[in-house]
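ESCALATION

Customer reports they have been waiting on this structure for their group meeting. Please prioritize. Original submission:
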Amino acid sequence: MRTKSRTILITAVLTIVTAVLAACGAKGDNPLAGGASSSADAGGGQGLVVGSANFTENQVLAELYAQAMSAKGVKASTHLNIGSREVYIKALKDGSISVIPEYTGNLLQYLDPKTTASTEKEVDEQLPKVAKEQGFATLTFTKAADQDVYVVTKTTADKYGLKSLADLKKVPNLIVGGPTELQKRPYGPQGLEGMYGAKVKGFKAYDSPAIKVKDLKDGKITVADFFTTDSAIADNGFVMLEDPQTLILPQNVVPLVRSDVTQNAKAVDAMNGVGAALTTADLTAMIKQVDVDHRNPDDVAKQWLQDKGLV
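Update from on-call: job pushed to the front of the queue and completed.
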């Protein structure tokens, strides 16, 4: 029943995702035109270009990969803050970027919306095959993971007796908060309703994590999507809700590259070296240095690489 439910949920959002992709294409052949800031152009003369999504952790990961490759003598640059998966996958396909830091379960669901995978083993087995079919390759999966997770305030958890996503059906007037693209994700509001029977009254999109935190504390939203590596969860005493039916798949960090990048042994070794040393605790600490201590992602990445002896 869980597999059937997952397939129905994912199929339901496929049409929406396809429409978004079409809209991105309508802006022109280059999905990066007029948007993201970049430390270098994405032309062939720039070597390998590592892109990133529009959130802190992905920017740090992109810097880690690029700087590690540069230390190995590979010509590499970054193109940070591109946007959501709908945009940067298109950029990877057309060669605007060469590498993007990704997350296993979410990536599998995006590349194969009909996947029935629900365990880490199933995700790890299916993802490389699906990626290859679309002209991509996944490098070595890391032990470092960053799950999407739904959180509530302790006050809300105590009031309704919330321990897992299954308990959300007890909450009236449920308002979900998260990044704009969460509305289209299989584990977004439709997933909460379809798999857990929650009755979602509304959704509020956030570009600013700080405003999302404030609104959750102020009761303007009931439950919010965070990353498990986000220090705001512990800093604010938020309660992470369990996911007994695995609505959200395992999300280990993995570099997704264009297939031709695998021919560059130095580049592959450099990125796999980062993955071998990286831990979830490292990710959490680096995100806090950027978001709380206001350090630049490139400086944070450089310090970590130096500490690990990778540059």
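Sent to customer with the following note: The radius of gyration is 19 Å.
Escalation resolved.
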